[in-house]
Amino acid sequence: MRYLHTMLRVRNLDAALDFYCNKLGLKETRRRVDEKNRYTLVFLAAPGDVPLVEESRKNGRPGPEIELTYNWDPEDYGEARYFGHLAYEVDDIYATCERLMKAGVTINRPPRDGMMAFVRSPDRHSIEILQKGAAKPPQEPWKSMPNTGHW
Predict the structure, then answer these.
(1) 46: alpha, beta or left? (left if phi > 0; alpha if psi -120 to 50)
(2) Would the CA dihedral through 7, 85, 118, 147 be positive or negative?
(3) What is the pTM of this model?
(4) For residue range 10-65, what is the model confidence (pLDDT) as tens digits?
(5) Using one digit for the tens of pLDDT, what is the confidence trace for 114-149?
(6) Are residues 33 and 52 in the same domain?
């Protein structure tokens, strides 16, 4: 058994791509536009996973990826908290959270412990950001920053 992808429905494809690619740093690996059934699929991978995706494509289905599904006809998906979250490991959680904040992303659960933070996509999908290796020593402004909203 091998992990392939997680599908996330998005309400606005441009806003979702801005968040996942420009702010979070994922890379688009492929796209499928289906005019007859009126949807677009965009597959994304973490930069460190792009070689895995390319290699796996040679032998069958590519992965590991996130599949953004944009249905052209509007639907209200609600807040579907049953989904849980996506998780990504980063080299420097503080630098990542600072870059996201400067890009206008709310840090819902700041990395007060130097190990874990949560943000949300424009479609309210929760994204967990984890520090690679050992936790960083707690530091300001993160250690005294309160939670914002929920994740």
Answers:
(1) beta
(2) positive
(3) 0.80
(4) 989 999 999 999 999 999 999 999 999 999 999 999 999 999 999 988 887 888 99
(5) 999 999 999 888 899 999 889 999 999 999 999 998
(6) yes
Of 28, 67, 98, 128, which is the active-site residue? 128
Cβ distance 40 to 72 under 8 Å? yes
Distance CA 31, CA 15 (A): 16
Residue 47 lies inside a defined structural domain of this protein: yes
Q: Which of 73, 104, 131 is the last residue of a domain?
A: 73
Do 134 and 104 belong to one domain? yes
List the domain range (segments joined by +) for residue 96. Answer: 84-151
* 55 flagged as catalytic: no
